[in-house]
Amino acid sequence: MFCPSCGSNIADGTKFCPICGKKIEVTASDNNPNVNRFGGLDQEIGNEFNNIRDSFGMGGAPRGPKLQTDRSLLMFIILSIVTCGIYSFWFIYTISQDVNTACQGDGDNTTGLVAYIILSYITCGLYSWYWLYRLGNRLQSNAYRYGITITENGTTVLLWAIFGSLLCGLGPLIAMNIIIKNTNTICMAYNQVNGY
């Protein structure tokens, strides 16, 4: 039988997946080997998934790069101050690359540093809010792929960034903290899937 969470081939009657640790719910069709819900297609898909996954670990196609999971708001603030704002550009560059790697295949793309700078300049800074909004939505919509839940979306981030400025200027910091926390969560899940 296969784990419904990660697709690993596991022994019949297993209560928890040894790969991802998720609890295995046993259905009536799982207990009855004569019931085949998809005419063998589920078995073929599961076998193909395992073959592909095993090839990654046995010298086949390379795994994705290990993504950074230790970003913090405090270091973002300190390094941005020390470098007179230059670190914030490096931060945008690295976070967009990591999100594009972790969310690859979702049909979306987080724009990189050059586009961020040019479009923010042309729109007098409005694009930076739009960038945060799209990033927040992308992180939330890709969480299901890794079996995690992210409650904040782009609207939450945008509201903190814009209207939170009225709270002694703390809103943009809260918005950035949400982005950092959710990016770390997605990157951590990506690293786990890739065996890091």
Could you explain the architecture of this structure?
The structure is a single chain. The protein is mostly helical and 196 residues long. The protein folds into 2 domains: 1-62, no CATH class; 73-193, no CATH class. The chain is 55% helix and 0% strand. The chain contains 8 helices and no strands. Helix 4 (86-102) packs across helix 8. The longest helix has 23 residues, at 171-193.
Average residue-wise pLDDT: 81
**In whole angstroms, how far apart are the ends?**
26 Å
How many discrete structural domains? 2
- CA radius of gyration is 21 Å
Our estimate of the beta-strand percent is: under 5%
Outline the secondary-structure elements.
Blueprint: H1 28-31, H2 41-57, H3 73-82, H4 86-102, H5 113-122, H6 126-142, H7 154-162, H8 171-193
Helix pairs in contact: 3-4, 4-8, 5-6, 6-7, 6-8, 7-8
